[in-house]
């Protein structure tokens, strides 16, 4: 027995101008014993095997969004290269994930590299060379722009770097030896930036306190017979004058 789950997606989810009409997932329940289909007897999974079947219809939708929708429903991590562009109009009825993905790739001249549950989609002209691998590198402190600029020289021309900013993950495709270089460089780049701590204190004062911080100068000058003068003289002092027009000596003289 087939159970159909219908999901209608709005244009906002798949870019302006693109309309995803309907996406239907057919979940096949296990069939009763002895009810195997001809397909299952030939070694292929039929509805009794519990395989998920998809019915999809896309009209003028960005192919990147089509692949993203398929990956979300199938539980696959589909990484689409920056070179993949264009729109697609597709209609499927009860197909498997692999068949749907293969049809989408062929319709747009694309190819894929699969490793585990990660599928890397690139234009068919970008040859995916034998021996390439895909690795993911989580990072915590560096920015995506810093990483791509610093790690790009460590990769080959056929390799590529994509940063998933939502999860802070670097996804690299290249040969193992180059990916080993990326591993070493990333460990050196993804570090905490040294910081300087400045400690400041605030002291409240008044105007009278500011005056007390000054310097008060003072002193006295004195001359007497012991220091080369007949009459004692002290500065500062007061001068007294008389009617003779001659200045008197120091006070009291």
Account of the 3D structure:
This protein has 253 residues and is an alpha+beta fold. The protein has 2 domains: 2-123, Phage tail protein beta-alpha-beta fold; 133-189, 2-Layer Sandwich (Ribosomal Protein S8, Chain: A, domain 1). 22% of the residues lie in helices and 30% in strands. It has 6 helices and 12 strands. It has helices at residues 38-41, 63-74, 97-107, 144-151, 176-189, 207-212; strands spanning 2-7, 19-28, 52-62, 77-80, 87-95, 110-115, 118-123, 133-138, 160-164, 169-174, 221-223, 233-235. Strands 1-2-3-5 form a 4-stranded antiparallel beta sheet. A hairpin with a 2-residue loop joins strand 6 (110-115) and strand 7 (118-123). Helix 2 packs antiparallel against helix 3 (97-107). The longest helix is centred in the C-terminal third of the chain and has 14 residues, at 176-189. The protein is elongated and about 130 Å long. Residues 1-49 have low confidence and may be disordered.
Topology summary:
Blueprint: E1 2-7, E2 19-28, H1 38-41, E3 52-62, H2 63-74, E4 77-80, E5 87-95, H3 97-107, E6 110-115, E7 118-123, E8 133-138, H4 144-151, E9 160-164, E10 169-174, H5 176-189, H6 207-212, E11 221-223, E12 233-235
Parallel strand pairs: 4-7
Antiparallel strand pairs: 1-2, 2-3, 3-5, 6-7, 8-10, 9-10, 11-12
Helix pairs in contact: 2-3
Largest sheet: 4 strands, antiparallel
Strand portion, in percent? 25-35%
Gross morphology is elongated
CATH class of the largest domain: Alpha Beta
**What is the count of β-strands?**
12
Task: Indicate the low-confidence ranges by residue numbers.
Answer: 1-49
Overall number of domains: 2
SSE succession: EEHEHEEHEEEHEEHHEE
Average pLDDT for all residues: 69
Helical stretch tally: 6
Strand order of the largest sheet: 1-2-3-5
Helix content: 10-25%
Whole-Å distance between the termini?
137 Å
Structural class: alpha+beta
Q: What is the CATH architecture term of the largest domain?
A: 3-Layer(bab) Sandwich
Global Rg: 44 Å
CATH fold-level topology of the largest domain = Phage tail protein beta-alpha-beta fold
């Amino acid at each position: 027995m087939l159970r159909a789950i219908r999901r209608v997606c709005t244009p906002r989810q798949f870019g302006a101008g693109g309309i995803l009409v309907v996406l239907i997932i057919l979940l096949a329940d296990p069939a009763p014993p002895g009810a195997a289909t001809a397909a299952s007897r030939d070694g292929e999974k039929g509805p009794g095997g519990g395989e998920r079947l998809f019915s999809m219809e896309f009209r003028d939708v960005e192919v990147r969004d089509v692949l993203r929708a398929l990956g979300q429903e199938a539980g696959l991590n589909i990484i689409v290269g920056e070179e993949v562009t264009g729109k697609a109009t597709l209609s499927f009825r009860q197909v498997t994930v692999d068949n749907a993905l293969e049809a989408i790739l062929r319709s747009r001249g694309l190819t894929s590299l699969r490793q585990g549950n990660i599928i890397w989609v690139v234009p068919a002209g970008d040859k995916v060379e034998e021996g390439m691998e895909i690795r993911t590198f989580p990072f915590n402190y560096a920015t995506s722009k810093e990483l791509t600029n610093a790690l790009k020289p460590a990769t080959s021309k056929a390799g590529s770097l994509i940063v998933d900013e939502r999860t802070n993950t670097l996804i690299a495709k290249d040969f193992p030896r180059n990916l080993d270089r990326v591993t070493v460089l990333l460990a050196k780049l993804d570090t905490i930036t040294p910081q300087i701590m400045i400690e400041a204190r605030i002291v409240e004062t008044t105007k009278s306190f500011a005056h007390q911080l000054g310097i008060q100068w003072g002193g006295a000058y004195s001359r007497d017979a012991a220091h080369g003068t007949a009459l004692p003289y002290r500065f500062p002092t007061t001068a007294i004058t008389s009617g003779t027009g001659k200045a008197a000596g120091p006070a009291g003289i």
